[in-house]
Design goal:
69% of the residues lie in helices and 0% in strands. It has 186 residues and is mainly α.
Length: 186
Amino acid sequence: MSTPKHVTLTERFRGIGREVIKFGAVGGMGVLVNFGVFNLLRHTTDLAVVRASVIAIVVAIISNYIGFRYFTYRDRDRGNRRREMTLFVAFSLIGMVIESGVLYAATYGFGWDSNLQSNIFKFLGMGIATVFRFWSYRTWVFRALPESTPAAATTVVAAQREGDAAPDAPATGAVSPEPAPEPAAR
């Protein structure tokens, strides 16, 4: 009979640290995509600053989803992709409103519209939105698989990779605990 694994505080911080590093790597690529598209649109089109920002954010959202699903959170629950994508888009749009709101306030509220000022306030808005996105993605979108025995967890992950439901697992993706062995006769 296997005993439940108790995670120490140090192990938990290491796990969150690894997650933050992976999130940052994907997010860093998203920042490059976001700024690249934003500045390309600002210099080659007559789009208003916030419209160019929204287009850049949408392109970055698409690239970030791919990075988060297949790199940062590849070990997370894959049970319901439609739910995951719906929540990802919803929380990404909230992040877009935060990011664009900061840029909008600087541009139209204070008249700060030079290329440098636009990039500074876009970066500031992006930082605020990133804190929200990190919390929402890890909490609601890419949910952790439930604690289970190593054999049951391997079965669930293998079944999810093949696109099947886990054997004897509820539809939510949770793993049923293994029944305790019967006591031996004396």
